[in-house]
């Protein structure tokens, strides 16, 4: 069932979003060669606890960590680990914050040290594709308009769009209807209405869009070892246009 949020619910989600943004900004300062994603995960758990919040995905379907930390060819749901990041890596940190029952979800891909030209383009196109999708997140549009905008842009730039993982509704639980594919046809799918809250989170690959699952049954990676990047915002559909409650530039 698709729910539309009240003003009070959105205000609570916005506070969670503000805290999530503050956490991501701290992570951006931490990212450098030599740090481990386990250290980042420990920081996030401590940071949230100090601000009265909890990592919503920890324990969700028995997921054991506060963050997902996906490196290079890992598409999503990478486990934090003790292996040090090295110069030229890319790492996506994805988290869901629960602050007094309000949820916010955002992923961000960071470069570690100096990145090659192809990697820089991957990150630029991935981030731009997110905002291409957000532009379509308007009352009266359909879900297919979001995916079509992302797919046509990313593929036009020579990249592929992951099909196996999608955005979703959020609040009061972590994953709700509707699913938000990052590919598809315009004018298709559920119509967007004022008060809906969704995530838009395209995963963009250098090579093939297909994924394969690691033995931990969580981590998905590219089938051809191409790198994958992801940027995600939690978006409120409003009569005045999309509202980003995880906006890092506000």
UniProtKB/TrEMBL annotation:
Cofactor descriptive note: Binds 2 divalent metal cations per subunit. Has a high-affinity and a low affinity metal-binding site. The true nature of the physiological cofactor is under debate. The enzyme is active with cobalt, zinc, manganese or divalent iron ions. Most likely, methionine aminopeptidases function as mononuclear Fe(2+)-metalloproteases under physiological conditions, and the catalytically relevant metal-binding site has been assigned to the histidine-containing high-affinity site.
UniProt binding sites for a divalent metal cation 2: 105, 168, 201, 232
CDD domains referenced in this protein's UniProt entry, alphabetically: MetAP1 (cd01086)
Domain spans labelled Peptidase M24: 11-239
An individual GO BP term: proteolysis
A single MF term (Gene Ontology): metalloaminopeptidase activity
Keywords recorded for this protein, A-Z: Aminopeptidase, Hydrolase, Metal-binding, Protease
Catalytic activity of the protein: Release of N-terminal amino acids, preferentially methionine, from peptides and arylamides
PROSITE patterns named among the record's database cross-references: MAP_1
GO cellular-component term (any): cytosol
Cofactor list: Co(2+); Zn(2+); Mn(2+); Fe(2+)
Quaternary state and interactors: Monomer.
Similarity comment text for this entry: Belongs to the peptidase M24A family. Methionine aminopeptidase type 1 subfamily.
Name the record gives this protein: Methionine aminopeptidase
Gene coding for it: map
């Amino acid at each position: 069932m698709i729910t539309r949020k009240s003003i009070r619910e959105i205000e609570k989600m916005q506070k969670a979003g503000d805290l999530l943004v503050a956490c991501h900004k701290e992570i951006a300062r931490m990212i450098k060669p030599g740090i481990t994603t386990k250290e980042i995960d420990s920081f996030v758990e401590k940071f949230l606890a100090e601000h009265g919040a909890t990592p919503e995905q920890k324990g969700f379907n028995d997921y054991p960590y506060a963050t997902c930390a996906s490196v290079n060819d890992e598409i999503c749901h990478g486990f934090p680990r003790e292996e040090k990041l090295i110069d030229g890596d890319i790492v996506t940190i994805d988290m869901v914050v629960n602050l007094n029952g309000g949820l916010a979800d955002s992923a961000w891909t960071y470069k570690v040290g100096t990145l090659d030209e192809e990697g820089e383009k991957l990150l630029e196109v991935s981030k731009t594709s997110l905002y291409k999708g957000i532009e379509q997140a308007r009352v009266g549009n359909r879900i297919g308009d979001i995916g079509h905008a992302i797919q046509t842009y990313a593929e036009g730039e020579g990249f592929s769009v992951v099909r196996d993982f999608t955005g979703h509704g959020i609040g009061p639980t972590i994953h709700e209807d509707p699913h938000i594919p990052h590919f598809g046809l315009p004018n298709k799918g559920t119509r967007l209405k004022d008060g809906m809250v969704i995530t838009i989170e395209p995963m963009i690959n250098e090579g093939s869009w297909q994924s394969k699952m690691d033995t931990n049954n969580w981590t998905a990676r590219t089938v051809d070892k191409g790198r994958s990047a992801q940027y995600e915002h939690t978006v409120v559909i409003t009569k005045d246009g999309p509202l980003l409650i995880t906006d890092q530039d506000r």
